[in-house]
Amino acid sequence: MEPVDFIEPTRSGGRPSDGEPEHVSQAGESRPDAPSLEVSGLGGDFATPVGTLVTRPPLFVSPEATIAEAARAMREAAVSSALVADDPPGIVTDGDLRNRVLAEERTPDTPVRAVMSRPLRSLPADAPLYAALLLMLDQDFEHVPVTRAGRIVGMVTDMDLLRQQARSPLLVLGRIRALDRLEALEGYAHEIAATAEALFAGGVEPVRIARVIASLDDALTGKLLQLAEAELGPPPCPYAWLVLGSEGRMEQVLLSDQDNALVYLEDTAEARAYFEMLAGRVVAGLLQAGFPPCPGGYMATNWCRPLAAWQDVFRQWIQTPDAQALLEAEVFLDFRHVHGELSPAPLNQILLTGADRQLFLVQLARAATKFSPPLGPFGRIRTDGGSVDLKRGGIAAIVLLARLYALAARSLARSTLERLEAAAQAGTLSRGGAEALADAFRYLTHLRLREQLRRLAAGGQPDNRVPLGSLSPLEQRRLRDALRTVVELQRATARSFQTGE
Fold it and tell me: Which residues contact 122 (CB under 8 A, 6 or more apart)?
């Protein structure tokens, strides 16, 4: 299909101008400088370069060194890891000595090469602290090498970040790992809000904050599943726990409704009984942690089925996209596998067939054009009681547009920004349109989170609305430009897919 383009409105915010820096991490992510919006000012600066935490050169050992020699070198240097001077280099940590040596009853003269981990995932010294935090959370690392000019100059550990940030998400992760009963979950929602506030005050972009919170939610879900398995016994067959919606896109920040599902391999009476009990325990645990039940019932207690049944449901959604089928498919198009040994690849393959079905794409396009931004004549922002619903008025439409164009590009990307990039690369959406939507998404998400945190600090309940009068003239202009971007892309989409609207 031809790339969808639009007449780009004049924008006062968004992408940095030529010459403005971009922060790029070796973990493969980049972001433009966050908008200069006022924040709550709570302590901690997660934008500090990670290199500032490096206080000593790294310890290197030979790949032929024995485990005993590496352990003595680590003890003498008072460090918890050693780099292995191999090609490519590797790393051995206290955890490796515990899990790969003692637990596997290896002898002290085993070469360190046999237990090291590689390839290394490193970060440049000028990467922000939150890049190291994301890497540790996403990969379950405790050590990250730091480089200058491509050369490893030091090591940053999870304890370094904990000492630097008293309200680090790593503290929450540590409490999750230590859980041994469901009763210990109380207070999780408060901890997540405090973590989001600390990251926001530290200058971390909200879309990155959402990644951090999603990683914590994934860890909590995985821990609940482990506790449930310990109580129920080993599962009778492989299974996959899926998260849906904003959690599937890793775009949920403060806790909201839980959306999840369970897929298991074998359709037997034993499997049905086991996984129904497993789903019930985990959903109950999430409720206790502060995740409200989904009003639409999209929870594993209702959506717990064998893989073959899931495949039939997905094919029906794609092949017969009526109103109800589309509503359900919209939720599951964002599914993400967070726990279990069963691969959901067969479901992904069925989703990709939607790119070949014009009726399905047209229905997605109609859905993407139904959320009308609140712009009146002459581009004035319309309010409801003086407030603007940022989700219904802009964010939801961007999510749906990104999903449509990514699927048309045969991309399995899940996050909105990744989907826009995939669409731009494949040519289903113009580069200018994708970048404009990405800028609008970042800005609206920033305003939304800032207002939610402000309401929490005032003792209220967060929602998706922001009082227009609370925004400065510059912020109102940027909001208007972001909403106009959405309107223009919706019009271009309606024309391209001939939705008749």
Answer: 26, 144, 145, 146, 147, 152
Cα–Cα distance measured from residue 91 to residue 96, given in angstroms and rounded to the nearest whole number? 9
Q: How confident is the model at residue 458, as a pLDDT?
A: 85
User: pLDDT band at residue 323, thresholds of 50, 70 and 90?
Assistant: low
Does residue 495 fall inside a structural domain?
Answer: yes
> Are residues 384 and 500 both part of a single domain?
yes
pTM here is 0.74
Q: In whole angstroms, what separates CA 175 from the centre of its chain? A: 20
Beta bridge partners of 221: none
In sequence order, what are the residues at sequence separation of 6 or more whose Cβ sits closer than 8 angstroms to the Cβ of residue 431?
Answer: 424
Q: Which of 138, 164, 190 is the last residue of a domain?
A: 164
d(CA 88, CA 228): 40
Residue 12 has pLDDT above 50, yes or no: no
Q: Do 466 and 370 have their domain in common?
A: yes
Same domain, yes or no: 392 and 500: yes
Q: What is the pLDDT of residues 189-222, one digit of tens each?
A: 888 888 888 888 878 889 989 988 999 999 999 9
CA distance 268 to 199: 46
**What CATH number is attached to the domain comprising 67?**
3.10.580.10
* Pair 97, 11 in one domain: no
Domain end point (choices 144, 164, 184): 164
Concatenated DSSP letters of 280-348: HHHHHHHHHHT-PPPTT--STTTSEEEHHHHHHHHHHHHHS--HHHHHHHHHHTT-EEEESS---HHHH
pLDDT average, residue stretch 406-418:
95
Domain containing residue 494: 1-33+357-501
Distance of CA 62 to the CA centre of its chain: 37
Q: Are residues 12 and 125 in the same domain?
A: no
DSSP per residue over 346-371, as a string? HHHHHHHGGGG-HHHHHHHHHHHTTS
Task: Say whether 244 sits in a helix, a strand or coil.
Answer: coil
| Dihedral sign for Cα atoms in the order 191, 197, 201, 207 | positive
> In this model, does residue 398 exceed pLDDT 60?
yes
Q: Characterise 171 by phi-psi region: left (phi > 0), alpha (psi -120 to 50), beta (else).
A: alpha
Burial of 19 (C-beta count, 10 Å sphere; 0-12/13-18/19+): exposed
Residue 28 predicted with pLDDT over 50: no
Q: What is the CATH number of the domain that holds 468?
A: 1.20.120
- 257 and 295 Cβ atoms separated by less than 8 Å: yes
Question: Which residues fall within 8 angstroms of residue 495, CB to CB, at 6 or more apart?
Answer: none
Distance CA(436)–CA(414), nearest Å, equals 19
Identity (one letter) of the amino acid at 326?
A: L
Q: Which of 91-100, 306-315, 377-386 holds the top average pLDDT? A: 306-315
1 and 124, same domain (yes or no): no
Peptide bond between residue 236 and the one before it cis (omega within 30 degrees of 0): no
Count of helices and strands (H, E) across the chain: 18, 14
